[in-house]
Design goal:
This protein has two helices and 14 strands. By secondary structure, the protein is mostly beta strands. It has one domain. A hairpin with a 4-residue loop joins strand 13 and strand 14.
Length: about 240
């Protein structure tokens, strides 16, 4: 009976914590990201998300390899590694995931060269709308019009059972080019199961190949999804065409 009471108390605490997510709060499990780079032709992009899982305390690393032209994951992606206990160093788990991904796609010639066009604070707070302004070419006196990428959260049902713990959502991206108008870059039509139970989003960074002529930029999106102890931050990448 004591065990049952403790379980019920824990559940009530968890529900109360999740219900409080109507106002922005830090994630329970704040994954970090690392850009592994672009392929030689700029068509493919690879990045890693990594951290310590909430609840288990196990280190994890996921490596994503994307075909930006087709906007799909490459075969084998994502490459996931997770420790089986709390003593396995995060560095070992990360090295294993990256080694598998880079070995499978060695022919693409990934190079850790890229330009960071814009980024949010590492401690960003989820919001219903967020914007980042940037110039496609990092020149001291800009020769390009100001570009502004805006993310808007859209309430949307998840194909997963989220137990009524969060109001799930998708998102859309609009790119405004100063003096040229606004275009839709991305809009979720449905939530993929792979996104789990997302409740909020943020703009993490905008990245481009070191060779601007390729034009294949990427918007890294923070995804705040239901986790064991609250909202966990993960990442996804959306291709941006910045050719000129």
């Amino acid at each position: 009976m004591i065990v049952l009471k403790r379980f019920l108390v824990w559940q009530l605490v968890l529900v109360a914590a999740v219900l409080s997510l109507a106002s922005p709060v830090p994630a329970a499990d704040m994954a970090e990201y690392r850009v592994l780079g672009y392929s030689k032709d700029g068509r493919h992009f690879a990045f890693e998300q990594y951290g310590i899982q909430d609840g288990s305390g196990f280190a994890f690393s996921d490596v994503f390899v994307l075909d930006l032209e087709a906007d799909i994951w490459m075969p084998g992606s994502p490459y996931r590694e997770r420790a089986d206990d709390e003593t396995t160093p995060l560095e070992d788990v990360r090295a294993a995931a990256v080694a598998r991904a880079m070995a499978d796609h060695a022919s693409l010639g990934f190079m850790p060269r890229f330009r960071l066009l814009a980024s949010a604070s590492p401690l960003e707070v989820p919001s219903r709308e967020a914007s980042l302004g940037f110039y496609p070419r990092p020149i001291l006196n800009p020769i390009d019009p100001l570009h502004t990428l805006t993310l808007t959260v859209l309430p949307m049902e998840s194909p997963r059972d989220c137990f009524g713990m969060v109001e799930t959502a998708g998102f859309e991206l609009l790119l405004d080019i100063e003096g040229q108008g606004t275009e839709a870059v991305h809009r979720d039509q449905r939530l993929p199961s792979s996104r789990a139970c997302p409740a909020d989003y943020g703009l993490a960074a905008i990245l481009a190949p070191f060779n601007e002529a390729a034009g294949r930029a990427v918007a890294l999106i923070s995804v705040y999804q239901l986790g064991f102890e609250g909202l966990d931050r993960r990442f996804l990448a959306v291709p941006l065409d910045l050719s000129f």
